[in-house]
Request: fold
Amino acid sequence: MKFLNLRHIALIALFPLLFSCVEKVNPEPSPNDQPGKETPETPVVSKPSAEIQQADQFAQNLLGTYYLWTKEINSDIAKLTPDTCKSPIPVVKEIRYHQGGKEVDHWTELMSDLSSMTSSVQGLGLSFGYDLMSGAISNKQGCYFLIVCYVNKGKPAEKAGLKRGDIIMTIDGNDITASNIYDAFYAENVTLGIAHLTADGYLGPVEKTVSMTADKVWEDPVLVNKTFDVGGKKVGYLAYSAFDLNSSTTLPDVFREFKSEGIEELIIDLRYNGGGYAFTECLLASMIAPSSNVAAGDVFQTEVYNSILADAWKQQNYDTNTYLSTKHVYKDSTHDIDEDVSNANPGIKKLYAIVTKGSASASEGLIVGLSPYLDITLIGQQTYGKYCAGLMMSPEDLYGTNSPYDYSKITKWGMYVMVSKFADKNGDNAAQPDGIPVQIESKDNPLDGSQLGDENETMLRAALTAAGKVYTRSSVETGRQFETELLEHSVPRGILIKTDIPQVVNNF
Reply:
C-alpha cells in the first residue's frame, strides 16, 4: 500500500465507459393480442463485463472499509453494485464526500492503471522536465500563453536551453488552445515557439523555436540549494518541488552541506510542491526540527481515521502517530531506503516557508507538523488546503492472498483513496479547511527576470527581507505581472501518500 502525496499526480488512465447492448426479442403472441397489432418489444439489459463487475466490487469494498468518510457516503456506495454499475470510475468521483453541496474530497480516484500514477508521483513518468503557468491572451479569444516556472536538472527542457521566465506562444507551430495545451506536457515530441516581453511589457511575437523529445529520467525535485549571508548569519535556501521517494536519499546530503556551512535559519521554497510521500515528509522534518526533539522521538503528526480503521488499529495495538527520528527505513519492490540523518540536522532556529496555492498536502503537512517546534513565517499566498492523506491501493493490497473475491481481471486497477486527516502533536491542522494563511504576502512572478535562487527573485527577496537582509534599492525592477496560474497536468496537486499502515482483511 502506498500513501501518496503526489507531485503532479500521474495522468490517470480512465477506463472507457462501457455501455450495454440492448437485445430485442419477439415474444409469442398471447390469445388476447389483436391481429395486425404490433407486440411491444421487451429489452433485455446486459450486465457489466466481468472486469467492470470486479472493479465495482473492489471500489465498494475499499470505500466501505478504508475511506475517511465511509459513514458519510454509506448510502451512496450501493451505486457501485456489480450487477448494475457499468462505469465505476465516474461513479466514484460522483459519490466521494460532499458537504452542503460542496465537494470536500477532490482527490479520491479509481483508475484502470495504477502504475501510471505511482510512476508520476515518483518523478519517473515520461516528461520534458519543467513546470508551467498558463494565462489567457486577452485580445485572442480561446488562446493561451505559457510561462516556464522552472526546469529540472538534466531533463530535455534544460538541455534545450529553456529557463524560468521563457514565454511559450505556440505548440508545433499552432496557437495554444484548450485542444493542444497539454501537449506541452504529454506529447512525446514537441516544438515550442518562445517569445519574450516587449519593451513596453506586452507579450511579444515568437522569436525562436525549441524542439524536445520527452524522456523517462528521474526528475530531481531539489531545484536549488544555496546559502546566503544575511547580516552576519547564515541562511539556507532550498527550492523543493516534490516529496518523492528517491529524493529521500539525496536530501540528507543537502542538509549535511547546510550544517557544514553553519546555517542558523532556513528558507524552504514549496511554491510548486503539490505533495508526495509521507515517508519523505517525515525524513525532511527530522532534519529541520530541533535535534533534541528528534533525538527524543517526539510526535511529528497525529492521524484521524474512520471508526472501522480506528477500531482495527486499536485491536492491533497500532500507533497511528508519526514520530521525528534519526532513522528512516522504507522498502518495497523498487526501493530499499535506510537513511540515518543524525548528522544532517543543522540546528535551525527559524524557518521561512515560501508557499502558494500550488503548495499542498505533504507541503502543508510539513508546516503543520513542525509548527509546535519551530518559529515559522509563511511568505507568499495561502496554501491549497489539502489536509488529508491517502493510500494508493491495488486489489491485491486490499484483499490479500486468500480472498474469496476474484480480482484476476483488474490486477492493474487501483485507487488513490483518502484515509486520514493529519494534524500536529496537539491535534491542530491549520490547513483545514481552506489552506494555511501567510504572514507576508508575495506573488510568484517568473517574469521578474530572476531565476530561482537569485536573491532578487521576487518571493526569495521577500523571504530574505524577513530574515533581515537589507537591499540597497527599495524595490526591484520586475517584469510585468499577468494573470496566470499553475497549469494542472498529470498529477493533481494535493498528494500525500501513506505507506506504513497495516492491512485490514477481516471484511473480505
